[in-house]
Amino acid sequence: MDEEHLHDDLRVFKDRNFFQLRLRSFFTVYLLLGLFFVLIITLFAVSLSRVSAISSKLNEVQPERKQNFSDRDFLLFPCGPGSREWEYFNGKCYYFSLTRMSWYKAKAQCEEMHSQLVIINSYAKQNFVMFRTRNERFWIGLTDENSEGEWEWIDGTDYKTTFTFWKEGEPNNSNNNEDCAHVWISGKWNDVYCTYECYYICEKPLPN
Ligand SMILES: *[C@@H]1O[C@H](CO)[C@@H](O)[C@H](O)[C@H]1NC(C)=O
Ligand SMILES: *[C@@H]1O[C@H](CO)[C@@H](O)[C@H](O)[C@H]1NC(C)=O
Ligand SMILES: [Ca+2]
Ligand SMILES: [Ca+2]
C-alpha cells in the first residue's frame, strides 16, 4: 500500500476542491448576470411608464386641438395641422400631386379632397405655381371642351378679362383634340388632349 494509495487519495481530494471552486465562480457570474437583467428590466419599465404618462397627457390635449386651431398651429400649418401636404399661399391652400392622371381624374381627385383644380388668375399666383412646378406638367382648372376655342375656368372666373400665361403659339388645339390646359416649361400654359396623364394642382380656401 501505501505510498501509492495515499497519493491517489490526495489527487481525488485536490480535484474535488478544484471542482467546488469552479462551481462557486460560476455561481457568482450567474448572480451578477441575474442582477444585471433585473436592473435592465427595471429601467425599461420605468422609462415605459414615463412614455405612457406623456402620451396619455398628449391624448388629453388632442381633442381640444381638433375642435379649434390654436394660433400657433395656424402659423405652423395654416392649411390645417392634419393636412401638411397642403401649401399655403396668399390666403389659400394648394396641393401639388405626386401622381399623374388624366384631366378628368385630376378634377375628380381635387373634388374628393374638397378642393378644385387651381385657377391661375394673377401673376403672383402664376409665380407661386411656376416656382413649385419647375418645368414639370401640372393640370390647371382651364378647359375649352364645351366649345372649341372658348376657354373657361372651372369655377366660372371670366376667362376673357382675366390674366393668361400661354406659351407662344398656344393654345394650338393640335389634331383638333386639345381641350385641357396644363402648366409646362417655365410654368407657361399649353393645351393638350384631356386624357394625357400629368400631375395636377388643387386649390382650396383656408379651413375655418
Ligand atoms: C379655442 O379654444 C380655446 C381653449 O382651448 C378657447 O379659449 C377659445 O375660446 C377657443 N376658440 C374658439 C374660436 O372656439
Ligand atoms: C401644338 O401643341 C403641342 C403641345 O400641346 C405641341 O406638341 C405641338 O408641337 C404644337 N404644334 C404646333 C404646330 O405648334
Ligand atoms: Ca381645344
Ligand atoms: Ca398645345
Automatic annotation (TrEMBL):
InterPro entries with a match to the protein in the record: C-type_lectin-like, C-type_lectin-like/link_sf, C-type_lectin/snaclec_domain, C-type_lectin_CS, CD209-like_CTLD, CTDL_fold
User: Transmembrane segments in this chain: where?
Assistant: 27-48
Protein name as catalogued: Hepatic lectin-like
Spell out the molecular function terms from Gene Ontology: carbohydrate binding
The source's superkingdom equals Eukaryota
Record domain C-type lectin: where? 89-203
Under SUPFAM superfamilies, the record lists: C-type lectin-like
Gene symbol of the encoding locus: LOC115348172
Instruction: State whether keyword Disulfide bond applies.
Output: yes
- Organism from which the protein derives: Aquila chrysaetos chrysaetos
For this UniProt record, give its keywords in alphabetical order, as a comma-separated list: Disulfide bond, Lectin, Membrane, Transmembrane, Transmembrane helix
